Amino acid sequence: MRGSDSFAEIHPDDREQIKQAFRDTVQTGTGQQAEYRFVLGDGRIRHMESSGGVIRDSQGRPLRVVVVARDISERKQAEAVQLARNAVLDQIVANRPLPAILDDIARRLEAIGTDMRVSILLLDPRSGLLSIGAAPSLPAFYNEAVEGLEPGEGAVPAAQRPGAARRSSRRTSTAIRAGCRIWN
Q: What is the average per-residue pLDDT within 9-25?
């Protein structure tokens, strides 16, 4: 925000709060602290924390407002992950059905990483085939294409591949991760 004199980059839902903090800083001369979302030129959102102060002229009139901002996106993401973990653990303790828990995990991950679409796949221990555990934001054609795949074998369902009745003697280990390192 160096040199910025505009509130245009501030997320619309946060803009009025930040404008009010700016007005309060100018009026009272007391620095304000605020957290808000900053929209980058490519549409990505960063979480910011800023502190402001007033520089006055010799008559005590506001001359400049100085704002120092820092990116706290990683901290906000870590907080969101911890809240999501706690919510999932609460659901497990409450004995909620697995499909509801998996759907909630997928939705929470998508909320944390707004550029992600999450699919949680389950491996059927009897058939060795994948099935959709949760994929709330993915299109039906994707879920239909993934349903019944053999891990590591590509995008053709096992029943439609030549030699489908024959099983590979090679063990396949599939680690399905939601596109980020936060669930380690």
A: 91
